[in-house]
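2024-03-11 09:14:02 DEBUG pipeline.ingest accepted 1 chain
2024-03-11 09:14:02 DEBUG pipeline.ingest length=417
2024-03-11 09:14:03 DEBUG pipeline.predict start
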Amino acid sequence: MNRKYHKLMKLGALVIGLGLLTSNVYAIDFSQDEAKYQKLCQKRSSYRANKSTCSAFENYLKERKAASAKAAGDIKGQIDTTKSDISKLTTAIKKNAELIDGKKKEVTKIQDKIKVAEDEIKDLEAEMLKRLAMMQEVTTENFVVDFLMSASSLDDLLTKVDGINAINDSNNDIVLDLVSVKKELDSKKKELNDEKVKLDKAQKEQNQMLKDYQAKEAELFVKLEAEQKKRAVYNSSLNNINLDGVAASKGFIKPVKHATPTALAWYYPADFGGGWHPGIDLANSTGTPVVAPANGVVLLTSSGGGGYGNFMVTAHQMGNDTYTFLYGHLNSFGKTSGSIKQGQTIGYMGSTGNSTGPHTHFEVYKHKNRKLKSVVNQYKNSGDFYFGLGYSSIGSCSNVCRIQPQKFLGVKYMQAY
């Protein structure tokens, strides 16, 4: 019993020891010195000698890349929400501006009506004063008394009295009506002005909110760019692990063995609507293999390429120059990182992104007098797979430029090979 117990204790201690050993290998805090482990693992000999550590470091980089991709996805979601809020707020501001404009027009109409009423009151008052002046003779102390005393009979007297009263009553009624109308119009004008003040205040608040949303959007784009660069760094770090053994190639082969060029660089065909086109479209059926044109490395793979859909970028040194190739609209990837050999399947033709049918969009970048490592490091530091050219610039090729893939491949428009 004691022997068995001691054996079990020894076995348990051995297991715990092995567990601790394994734990120590995989519990390294790589974030404290990524450059150290990158250097340790990028050479084939040291990679093999430290395979467990390098394998753990590789997993660490993958996790960091995935975490950065998730963070970028979250930021994109926030950007989309902010864009939606901006759109809604812009619509609300536009409607509010229309309401304010409507209130201004109503106030103008009311002011015109008030002016008419005021003019009518003034005219009537002037008319009344004119009549009183006519009734007051210079030579007579009281024209009204004289007028009444001139009556020839009682009936004539009553008639004259009624006439004077009718004139006064009529004038008084008209004035009272006009004053009442003016009062209502003044009240309506005040009501409209109060509403306009409220709308003006709301518009100022909305404009401030719009500025805040736009500032938030700009801030999110900065964060997104930072995450994209971070992901690019981890992606490039992954690709730099154990890549010193990339063999040189004597020349390039076509990325698709059998295809029909349906659009060339730099413009789409006229019957397709024309417009800038930085690459060549090589058409075949979905799932057609896309192969590495030469020995090199996978620089980038992305499933969020917008118009490109699923796309990847590879880098290859040929003599003193390095070439980078972009492959767009892939159905899926055959290789997502690390070194690649000439003719190796790296992806499969598809129609993802902005595409009208299965094809591979292929772009060619030439980095003159640049070593592969230099180009990879540039991408690692910038995350820019256009290498400073932007989307539409061709470049002078003093450093990097786009070159026409049809000339590079030696193919012609709509001529199958």
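2024-03-11 09:14:41 DEBUG pipeline.report The two ends are 79 Å apart (CA to CA).
2024-03-11 09:14:41 DEBUG pipeline.predict end
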